[in-house]
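[09:14] KT: can someone run the structure on this one? pasting the chain below
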Amino acid sequence: MKKILYSAIAGLFALSSCNLDINDNPNYPSSENITPALQFPAAINSIADAVGSQMMIYGGFFAQYFEQMPEANQYNDIAELNIDESKDLFRRTYRSIYAGALQDLKEIDEKTTNPANRFAAAVLRAQAFQLLVDNTSETPYKEALQGNGNTTPRYDDGKTVYEGVLAELDAAQAAVADNKIDMTDPLLNKDVDQWKGYANALRLRMYMRLIDGGVDAAGYSAKAKALVEAGEFFSGDVKWDVYSPVEGQFNPFYGTKFALNANNFCAAYPIAAYMSETADPRIAYSMAPRASDKAYVGQFPGAKQGNIYNPASHKNNSVSAINVDDFKDAPIYLFTQSELQFLIAEVQYRFCNAPAAAKAAYEAAVKADFNSRGVEGASEFLAAAGSWDAAADKLELVYMQKWVALLMRNHMEAWSEIRRTDVPKLSAYTAAQINASPDLYTPGELIAPDVNYYGKGNIAMRVPYSSDSRKYNSNTPAAKMVSDKVFWDVK
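[09:31] RB: done, structure tokens below
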């Protein structure tokens, strides 16, 4: 199955690459030779590449999972928030989503009369635009994807985009009268019910951001509650599982390391400290213990080029490496069962006044994550540091454990949830203060990067607009800094 899908994706790129015309609103001309059967895997692959490659990397730094290895330098700018449009942080993702995923999905919708195919395309389109908004807040939407008809589309505000794709999703799903209709689908085994469950999970994710962003909080709270009470969600994980441990077919995150021939990623101090403090057995899945004492030790955010460390003694073996080599053929997770169950637990606790149901969903979330990693000990963990009953702040426990569960799964969603919930919270102490007096630090708190160009003593809140958009689209808004917030981040 993996080889078939990889061949389909490669075949589409071979057909279309000579026609690729990238501008501010990337497009390529359609071809009668490119069918929905080819375009679906290509569209999914474009979204997965964005989530599992670039967002996996910068989201890993922003969520304080990753830091730059002491003896490498590839990602110093990201670690130190030294990021503006000239750094091209978002350029490849912007091109991949617009010129790849969204263009393919538009053509699928135009070519097919199959309502199930159109619905699946609408689901993927909703996720693509959600990712764009969660990165830059504003993005071309109403005027996007018009090709030569409009090469300088105006940007829409994030609220307009969110509510627009949610309305599209509702309309596309309403048109699917028969759940047994055949469809072209390499992601969810042609199961319309699974696609409806996936759509409902995306709705729930976006509803929670709208609610906490102060957008019709009562209305979206009622919708979130109704979704959870209906319980019509996907089973398993929504994951793109097409990669192989062969050069040219690697998982793109591993492929980045392979191409650079560099060991760039070590654990960040907050995640290593928290998982060590809670004796979490999942820690060995994501990072390696330090050889000298078998301890899991993270590096302070943005500290590699600061004054905390002595360069002569601070070496790669001083910290825990991220287990990148284990991800050669790992799938890319677009939505995990664990994330879904954490969202359900939050809704049950906040809106349904159902603490017992919230506990059940929370524990299901933790168990799903343990199971997905092949790690034993979930029940024991839930009886100890992960105990619902022992937690003074139930929501904080949900949010902290979601942060852990998204490690090496979906770093974009981890970063977005940190911004939405403010959990893990930011330490009141600097990296230098904590390094000098470790007892000041509460394990798991985020730490403002020691060298911090634009964060203003905080973490990254957004990414700059694509440099391609700035170059080709005169309607690109004024430049933003990483300290500027997206529309739903109002706390």
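[09:33] KT: thanks! DSSP finds 18 helices and six strands in the chain.
[09:34] RB: yep, looked fine to me
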